[in-house]
Amino acid sequence: MEGGVPEADMSAFRECLSLSYKNPYVLRLAFSAGIGGLLFGYDTGKDDFKAVDRKTWLQEAIVSTAIAGAIIGAAVGGWINDRFGRKVAIILADTLFLTGSIIMAAAMSPTILIVGRVFVGLGVGMASMASPLYISEASPTRVRGALVSLNSFLITGGQFLSYLINLAFTKAPGPWRWMLGVAAAPALIQIVLMLSLPESPRWLYRKGREDEGKSILKKIYPPEDVDAEIQALKESVDMEIKEAESSEKISMMKILKTKAVRRGLYAGMGLQFFQQFVGINTVMYYSPTIFQLAGFASNRTALLLSLITSGLNAFGSILSIYFIDKTGRKKLALISLCGVVVSLALLTVAFRESEVHSPMVSVMETSHYNNTCPDFKAAVNPGRWTCMTCIKASPSCGFCANAPDKLLPGACLISNDTTKDMCGNDHRSWYTRGCPSNYGWAALIGLALYIIFFSPGMGTVPWVINSEIYPLRYRGVCGGMASTTVWVSNLIVSQSFLSLTEAIGTAWTFMMFGIVAVVAIFFVIIFVPETKGVSMEEVEKMLEQRSLQFKFWQKRNSGSEKY
Q: Which residue from 41, 235, 312, 460 could staple onto 320, CB 3.0 to 4.6 Å apart?
């Protein structure tokens, strides 16, 4: 199977399922390393910290400091992966995450919480490439994509778990403290598991520890394949060592001059960039807020709907385990992006209609209470105010909907707990982020479709591609560069999302994501190669030879193909 591209059938998926029975050792390696993905996903759950409610800049700061830490962790992690090994990188990442979780759980103020988030970010950034890289290098070629997809499934499973725990503790004092304290457990479990596991066999070969690498490969591959795999790996390492001795050390100039590495970086870093700029992590970080923007007032209802969203995300990751080695990475990414474009178009329309048809503010309804919003009192034309005008006027304003019908004119009041309780006592709904709407169902459908299309394709493909596309000598450094790209992109998008929704509206924000998704489709067609069924030692040759393929659905001749 060296260098071959197998037909797209169900055999790869069946082989992956049978692997857990025939060779549980490989599954144990993949699952143990994949717990890093669980930590990554769990951390994206939104923390319900009382002091940051309605403070957009502070919400963005708490999210963004973790991402800033992840940028540093990813950048340093590439060097640690190459210098000390994948196993050491994962254990160090867990230790940082564990430290950060303890600090956050004990935090008495947003400042301490932010400090803990930095530690967590360092760990998540370091693990974001180390985990899939370890899994990829310890997996048989034919099921490599499915096993790396296991890491993506655990990411989405972690997101689901975070919302489930948050929902369970909604009525308890300080639910965020319970959430963050629980996060320490899987980090501790992974440290224990990784201490009992071997290093990546390919890294061991690269460091001259061939006997250790051979013994691990014999446990991973069946007897009839292991000799060919060892020979291919040995030839690949020998070639790289010879190249390293006859050339300068790894540098940015060397990376850009090497055709295979340069083309790999175009594809890998580009995929990570577009993965973030189509808006996925804003949906996961701020999904309760998005549901309130869609008109669902109750925080508990928003969390419940977010739980459903993260459940769909986890389900999509399960689908990716099936399709990644059956359909192929490139086709799966393109199908995913096409669905994302349609979903974002629906979200744009739904939110725009909600903004245009927002309920009016009634002077009479407002005067029923004694705490009118100061901005509404000072307004020159209060008769033209809508719910959307009210909640956007100031963070100190909220909308109390009409009791018989939420779409009838309501009251614009000072936003505080007293007013919220008064509004609730009159059997009215209280809105601070979104407004009552007839189009909330359309936003729900759009968000569900977005997750269903994104998760199996763009949620998984960038991580799989980046774990297998780089030559062994450059794998840690290039993987670190790609991980840094995803975290920098994540930082930009998450830092600006709430501010963008306040400045231009939720509808136009989603439209911007949709335009980026259209650009991403053309990028994948032109720059991303198909690596399904290609051994890691053959990927370098593929990148050296491949030419651009616009008709991606057509197979190339196996004899003279340029991949």
A: 460
